[in-house]
Write a structure and sequence with these properties.
- With 328 residues, this protein is an alpha/beta fold.
- Helix 1 packs across helix 3, helix 5 crosses helix 12 and helix 10 crosses helix 11.
- The structure holds alpha-D-ribofuranose.
């Protein structure tokens, strides 16, 4: 026979309603009664029935976190930033990956909806209008976007100043005397790449350097794909003297292609990236890069979602955190 709230209440000498307030982390309970209830829960081995409670409170205390690839350190740190906040507030996460695939994202969102999550934090796999996300908004399911935005979707969105970060990175290369700067990006449809490419273009325009389409290359979001693109770029008869890579996997792929070719950084080819480098690679560790406050992005996204779950009806916010360009 499983232990019930009534058993805990009798053991602690309080009412079942008081026990329920402690379990649901809501309402006032004196420290003395809270301690007696927690002792009774431990002694009796009480386990709250989440499903039964959700029927009463209409809340599962579960949040869906949808990223593109948790094996990417960027998204692992993002998830840790989200969970630091949600766990403290009594919520559990269900994590899902979309592999940068909008169809997979649709299936994941629909599955999480069926699990009755109280809300979702999502890294969009495209910036194009997404019916499955508009449907969440129409159904008033709390949704916060993080890292990237989606057109025509009025929900809280937590990002960084991608355009300014890219502008700083490419301006640094121009100041070092580079006028032929290649750029390697993955999915050109996601807002981070759209904004970082805009920063690249602004840096060239302000320096009076012509924009060359042949120096702009996009690929799959894998290190190998970036490696192949970079290998082709540096093997040209007229190669760029510098490369801007728009995220961690692009940087790692390009670095490995450069090291494979036996080229010296920065003497023979300069490279500036976006994101911290945390995956092992063969060459020197000193790479100039644009660092993102990833953990803070996760914290802020979680705080915004909890506010929406608790009834905040204010207009949607676009929150931009600052990047930091660091030269090694
Ligand atoms: O690979 C992670 C990168 O893609 C980060 O720059 C993040 O902004 C995402 O867009």
């Amino acid at each position: 026979m499983s232990v019930t709230i009534k058993d805990v209440a009798e053991k602690a000498g309080v009412s079942p309603a008081t026990v329920s307030r402690v379990i649901g982390s809501r309402g006032y309970v004196s420290d003395k009664n809270r301690r007696k209830i927690q002792a009774a829960i431990r002694e009796l081995g009480y386990q709250p029935n989440v499903l039964a409670r959700s029927m009463v409170t209409k809340s599962t205390c579960i949040i869906g976190l949808v990223v593109t690839d948790i094996l990417n350190p960027f998204f692992a740190h993002l998830a840790r930033g989200v969970e630091k906040v949600t766990w403290q507030e009594g919520f559990t996460l269900i994590l899902a990956n979309t592999d940068e695939d909008p169809d997979r994202e649709t299936a994941v969102v629909r599955t999480l909806q069926a699990q009755q999550v109280d809300g979702l934090i999502l890294v969009p796999s495209t910036s194009l209008p997404s019916p499955h996300l508009s449907e969440l908004v129409d159904r008033k399911v709390p949704l916060v976007l993080v890292d990237r935005s989606v057109r025509n979707l009025a929900v809280d969105t937590v990002m960084v100043d991608n355009e300014h970060g890219a502008y700083q990175a490419v301006s640094y290369l121009v100041q070092k005397g580079h006028s032929q700067v290649g750029v390697i990006l993955d999915n050109p449809e996601i807002s981070t790449n759209i904004e970082r490419l805009a920063g690249y273009r602004r840096a060239l325009e302000e320096a009076g350097i012509p924009y060359r389409e042949d120096l702009i290359r996009s690929c799959q979001y894998t290190e190998q794909s970036a490696h192949d693109i970079a290998a082709e770029m540096i093997a040209r008869a007229d190669p760029p003297s510098a490369i801007f890579t728009t995220n961690n996997f692009m940087t790692l792929g390009a670095l490995n292609a450069i090291i494979e070719r036996g080229m010296k950084i920065p003497e023979q080819i300069a490279i500036v990236g976006f994101d911290d480098l945390e995956l092992p690679w063969m060459g020197p560790a000193q790479i100039s890069t644009v660092r993102q406050p990833v953990h803070e992005m996760g914290n802020v996204a979680a705080q915004r979602l909890l506010a929406r779950i608790r009834g905040d009806q204010s207009p949607a916010l676009e929150i931009r955190l600052k990047t930091r360009f660091s030269t090694e």
